Amino acid sequence: MRSSIFLLFITGLLTACSTDLDLNPLGSQSVGTYYKTASDAEAAVLSMYGQLRGMYRDEIVVTPNVIAADDGIPFLTGNADRVAMWRYGLISTNTFVGNIWSNAYTGIQRSNLIISRAPAIPMEEATRKSYVGEAKFLRAMHYFTLVRFFGDVPLVTTETTSLENVNVARASVDEVYKLIESDLKEAETVLPKSYTGNNIGRATSGAAKGLLAKVYLTWAGANASSPYWAQAAAKAKEVIDSGIYDLWANYADVFDLKNRGGKESLFEVMYITDLAGNNFTTGYAPRGAPIVPSTGSGIFRVSKSLFDSYTAADKRKAVTFLTSYVHPTTKATVTLSTDDADPARAVSFWKLADVTSTVSGGGGKSFSVQRFSDILLIYAEALSEANNGPNAEAYAAMNRVRVRAGLQPLSGLNRQQFKEAVLLERRLEFAFEANRRFDLVRTGRLLDAVNAETSYGRSPAIEATNVLFPIPQREMDANSALKQNDGY
């Protein structure tokens, strides 16, 4: 299943360059001689997906949404830049901040190569349109990441072929969103509804529609009268009405290896166990725990505020977290806690752990960028906001997610109560799926949430300007047209 995409990750063909421009993404071939045939174009398309693997495996998008919010706590003996981000001692040289920017723009360059080169390559017209659609979908995805972390960012929409004229000023947030909207509107019209065989995992029209719904939801922000609420609801409804997607009966089934690319998935970053894996098993197991290859790394612990937000009836809690394990040698049960300061006894995120992996960093579970439960909750929230309160359809959408989790349906809420209920549902449903900080920022709740999570001596130095990250210093040094975000 989809191995044709991901086995390429481990070859030199898809090795990423160290520079943001990534002018030569296909190994030793030059851009001047390579893009000549349909096979060349297909390899270049696959290289776009290759860029996603590092962005999620290496915590580039995941870490800020866990520790720069209120869901996770880095161990103080771990990476200093991770701890600094958690405490909001953010500076422009923080490596996590720099990696978001560089990886996103490398992905954008790969997309722009396809958009620029595909029209001149002989191939079937339907294939050409699909390749360009995939490139625009992924370019939109990268810009959506950038605009949510940094605000105004440079818009680069053509292939970069040299180091001349690369000093590009930042475009406004609205300009970035307009490009994202345009790219996704085109992508949804040219991408197929589904794939089969080894092509499962590539962007579809449903993925483009779903991402656009989330874009509108985010674009609406905290503006109660925004027209984007109605647009988010309408686009989410298109996905729901397509009949292509559905919830798995059990929450655990979402993350089962055999269900990758299944009915709940709109788009996911896929890995192959022990061949092109992720680090969500060894990396997030309790530190030193002998239950994973090389023993657990214990990158960060689960916050008590997140852990305690799940009720006893919520079936997602047991799936999401590792709360105990049996030591393979002593056979003793090791109980984990959110209160114990010992990294070896900390509750861990576990729903993405691949216990079949035999090597460190070899996990094969997909990282979900968007799944059907996200669409249902987007629809519920946007519909309620657009209509000044929830109607029967909004309740039905949210309650589908709640009932699957073993919770009782909700009813009788006003607009604000419904909004709070949806946001809590999103926190519980998507824990560790790179949504939390984005949800807090778009709803204007980041400062309150961070200031409320002060366990383990956090004392966050967060200010209103910290809703945006600093522009990385290496980019400021390289691009004289850039101006730094306020507060940095």
What does this structure look like?
The chain has 488 residues and is mainly α. The protein has a domain at 3-241: Serine Threonine Protein Phosphatase 5, Tetratricopeptide repeat. 43% of the residues lie in helices and 5% in strands. The protein has 18 helices and 8 strands. The protein has helices at 3-6, 31-34, 38-57, 62-67, 80-87, 95-117, 125-150, 173-190, 205-220, 228-241, 304-307, 316-320, 372-386, 392-404, 415-429, 436-442, 446-452, 473-478; strands at 72-74, 265-269, 300-302, 321-322, 324-326, 333-335, 348-349, 367-371. Strands 1-3 form a two-stranded antiparallel sheet. A hairpin with a 6-residue loop joins strand 5 (324-326) and strand 6 (333-335). Helix 6 runs antiparallel to helix 7 (125-150), helix 13 runs antiparallel to helix 14 and helix 13 (372-386) packs antiparallel against helix 15 (415-429). The longest helix is centred in the N-terminal third of the chain and has 26 residues, at 125-150. It is globular and about 65 Å long. It starts with a helix and ends in a 10-residue tail after the last helix. Residues 1-28 have low confidence and may be disordered. Residues 49-217 form the SusD-like N-terminal domain. Keywords: Cell outer membrane, Membrane, Signal. Pfam families: SusD-like_3, SusD_RagB.
TL;DR?
With 488 residues, this protein is mainly alpha-helical. The chain is built from 18 helices and eight strands. The strands form four sheets. It has a two-stranded antiparallel sheet. Strands 2-8 form a two-stranded antiparallel ribbon. It has a two-stranded antiparallel ribbon with strand order 4-7.
